[in-house]
Amino acid sequence: MKIGLDLGSRYVKAVFMEDGRLVDYRCYDTLAFYREYGRKVDGELVVDYERLGWPTGAAITSTGYGRNLVKLAGGQVIPELRAHTRGAIFQTGLSDFTLLDLGGQDSKVIKVAGGRMVDFRTNDKCAASSGRYLENMAAVLAMDVAALGECRDEPVELSSTCAVFGESELIGQIIEGHPIEHLAAGVNRTIVKRVEPMLRELYSPVVVFTGGVARNQAIRAMLEDALPVQVILPAYPQLNGAIGCAV
Q1: Domain that residue 15 falls in
Q2: 31 falls within a domain
Q3: Looking at per-residue confidence, does 117 or 40 come out higher?
């Protein structure tokens, strides 16, 4: 049994693999995970696996936003980019593509050729193209994130790609009287505008889309409208980094 652990900024994802097959997985709110199951000992994160109900004696490999904060005791740590590349190759069976990962608080674009990462771009200093940005905008529009992800028609032009100033601009557009669905489409469009330059720079005709934001149908469709690409959604987009740790 191998356990892959992605210590993300919004969610901690754990996958359980046996003989190269995904047999189970769990997702936890990040703050709740650290509060209820983790404690820091001698500078390392000690996780209470028994209380979590995880199998004992399994090899554990971790990655993710949290690996920069504290090392997991008793486990191997691998870089995020390597984990996500391995996960995407395992899930799709492809060896040549561009990986787009939009997580809770950052974005990553990785060029993969011949089954190896050959170049990458990341944005972890701004939340504008992340799940956190979509959650904030959905709250302003009084929608849930899933409903926002269905809006792609007649997007209202939003000039700000900043997560903070974008809220102010969106409120101003609500006052202008635009339909909520068109504003939601505009929010989705800002994500595409934010990542489009990176995708053009590391272009491949196939884009593998992972991370929690990959479940947004409108963004997937807008990417295919903006670029001559086929966007592929793997079976477990949000678990991709954890899967990459366990393969």
Answers
A1: 2-80
A2: yes
A3: 117
Nearest residue to 135 via CA among 69, 191, 196, 53: 191
Q: Report which secondary-structure segment, H or E, holds 186.
A: helix 180-201
pLDDT value at residue 130: 79
DSSP symbol at 57: T
Query: Alpha-carbon Rg of the chain, whole angstroms?
Result: 19
55: in domain: yes
Q: How far apart are CA 243 and CA 12, in angstroms?
A: 13
Query: Which token pair is 171?
Result: 């409120």
CATH of the domain at 26: 3.30.420.40
Q: How far apart are CA 205 and CA 234, in angstroms?
A: 16
pTM of the model: 0.91
pLDDT classification of 127: cutoffs 50, 70, 90? low
Please tell me the total count of domains within the chain. Answer: 1
